[in-house]
Amino acid sequence: xxxxxxxxxLLRTLIAVSGLSLVVACAxxxxxxxxxxxxxxxxxxxxxxxxxxxxxxxxxxxxxxxxKGISPLxxxxxxxxxxxxxxxxxxxxxxxxxxxPVWQYLEGAISPQRVSKGRALLRKHSATLDAIEAxxxxxxxVLVAIWGLESSFGQIMGNKSVIRSLATLAHEGRRxxxxxxxxxxxxxxxxxxxVQPERMRGSWAGAMGQTQFIPTTYNTHAVDFDxxxxxxxxxxxxxxxxxxxxxxxxxGWKLGQPWGKEVRLPANFDYALADMDTRKALAQWRQLGxxxxxxxxxxxxxxxxxxAGHRGPAFLVLDNFRSILRYNNSSAYALAIGLLSERxxxxxxxxxxxxxxxxxxxxxxxxxxxxxxxxxxxxxxxPDGIIGANTRRAIRQYQQQLGWPADGYASLxxxxxxxxxx
Length: 422
Ligand code: CA
What we know:
binds calcium ion; 5% strand; mainly alpha
């Protein structure tokens, strides 16, 4: 993984299974705790049963897997010499105190090296990409951008045994039921013969191959595009790119439509409108004084995104942006994909300045912000250090009470103001 933390495909499925509303990043690096669904329950709660031994857990799980149709041969080969991996548990429990601001994340994601590598690969794979566009109606630049961010174009796919990682997480991770479902799906993949157990490698959380699909996403969306009979997202670029295209197609991709565009806002704009839950036609945004996005049907629905609050750049984002969020539910990630896909064509530069004097809140500061909002009678949700929809709504209400621009952005200035109120 090019970025330390929760892989795309894991978030993807968490969203799918939990029905969480879309999360819009504030000063958050993608795939960090500020941007991901709450991992919930700590292990050491008083109700937790004593942890089963790995061998006992494995014996129980073997019965379950066999009852679900996994053959004993496949199971025993996959699990031969499998022991828990302590580094997976460390990664699962890590809650980084500091996150990079969104502009630093974008700088890393859209590096000149990644842009030039992507351009070269667009040329190299143009025939394959022609065929993929024709079959799935997903724009090639976006596929190559996803490829670039997920695995550095297949260079960094994670080198952990997927079976071992998921078995470790199913045994003693924070989301054992989720990991167990992924592990069963991984065994189904092995039983289907798409990949040998030794080659089934991925991130600590079980995100696999050049697309970083988790096993359930693989089972629903991976395709054999090069026609050798195996869905190989590890060693076949054609299979990997087509699988990503299949996923985006299923997420409602609209061929030839932009993801969105940077826009300008008028003075005295109502920043409370900058929320992914607020959708308006382009004609309505224009009436509100938002300018800079032209050439599309006036009835096209769009939301306004302020990734760094009202002091930073503003973007109108369209349905394709939401499709990218289905791949990885982080607005910083979706913005990086959109901009990188344009950089391949020499576009995708941001005009407005980022508020680089602003330091993102640390995890403990975010917790403090939530607790203080709660103490004042707002409803930011259970304080967990994650700035989600509820926290943003509570911030907006407090900002409105103060007469501040109500952008819902968790800034240090806001925390300092909260510290002064009683
Ligand atoms: Ca294949």
